[in-house]
């Protein structure tokens, strides 16, 4: 059964990794998906083709996030490609990481990671409010790094903590409209972002697996299934929460 039939979803950073898995899952559940990409148009087009091959509906939108005016430009592109459709589901997945400790982080890198990971979701939601249907769903992709001490990625973890606070306040603000807002916090996931240090390195893979209570590295689909739950009517009574999707890491 297509539990998201007639729904329209926006998934930022939907061309690869977790975003791609989320876009595919929401489309499989019946939603029409608009997925954004920053630089890799080929990956975005391939994701759209895969969704269509599986019987779903999707469009790809180019969106450089993190600069002033980017959120408004994104919704203009959304309106153009969808014919001004209203939106039911917003998944703020796009994000970047900066692996530097307190001493090594530059002001430029700090500004960039906060612009993409915090400012962009904030203003994407702000700009969405006029066309976001009552009873809609907002899901912010956070990280287990928001609750763990990781000094080597202090700025990244801080952005995800800020995103979780945004989730909490947004849930309260939009509750009267029946809109739920939640965060999903993945752990170590086998994506292209982690490929350089994880894939092909047996020692790194074993260590990453050992951090999870379930004894393995997560997949994008593990996270996408949680997002799909929160985007569905099954999660109608869940809001303002951070849902841990780390496989029980660091318990």
UniProtKB/TrEMBL annotation:
Native organism taxonomy: Bacteria, Bacillati, Actinomycetota, Actinomycetes, Streptosporangiales
Name of the molecule in the record: SDR family oxidoreductase
PANTHER family, alphabetized: OXIDOREDUCTASE, SHORT-CHAIN DEHYDROGENASE/REDUCTASE FAMILY (AFU_ORTHOLOGUE AFUA_5G02870), SHORT-CHAIN DEHYDROGENASE_REDUCTASE FAMILY PROTEIN
InterPro entries: KR_dom, NAD(P)-bd_dom_sf, Sc_DH/Rdtase_CS, SDR_fam
PROSITE patterns: ADH_SHORT
Keywords recorded for this protein, A-Z: Oxidoreductase
Family indicated by similarity: Belongs to the short-chain dehydrogenases/reductases (SDR) family.
One Pfam family of this chain: adh_short_C2
Domain Ketoreductase as annotated: residue spans: 7-208
Any one Gene Ontology molecular-function term assigned to this protein's record: oxidoreductase activity
């Amino acid at each position: 059964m297509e539990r998201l039939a007639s729904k329209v979803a926006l998934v930022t950073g939907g061309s690869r990794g977790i975003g791609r898995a989320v876009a595919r899952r929401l489309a499989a559940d019946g939603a029409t998906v608009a997925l954004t990409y920053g630089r890799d148009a080929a990956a975005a087009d391939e994701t759209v083709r895969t969704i269509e091959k599986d019987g779903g509906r999707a469009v790809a939108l180019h969106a450089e996030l993190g600069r002033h005016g980017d959120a408004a430009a994104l919704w203009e592109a959304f309106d153009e490609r969808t014919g001004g459709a209203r939106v039911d589901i917003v998944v703020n997945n796009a994000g970047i990481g900066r692996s530097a400790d307190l001493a090594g982080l530059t002001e430029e890198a700090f500004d960039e990671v906060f612009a993409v990971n915090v400012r962009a979701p904030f203003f994407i939601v702000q700009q969405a409010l006029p066309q976001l249907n009552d009873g809609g769903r907002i899901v912010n992709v956070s990280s287990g790094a928001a609750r763990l001490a990781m000094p080597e990625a202090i700025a990244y973890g801080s952005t995800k903590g800020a995103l979780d606070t945004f989730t909490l306040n947004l849930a309260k603000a939009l509750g009267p409209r029946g809109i739920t807002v939640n965060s999903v916090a993945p752990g170590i996931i086998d994506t292209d972002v982690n490929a350089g240090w994880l894939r092909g390195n047996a020692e790194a893979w074993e260590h990453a697996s050992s951090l999870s209570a379930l004894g393995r590295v997560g997949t994008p689909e593990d996270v996408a299934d949680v997002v799909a739950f929160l985007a569905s009517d099954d999660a109608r009574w869940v809001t303002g929460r951070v849902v841990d999707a780390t496989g029980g890491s660091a318990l």
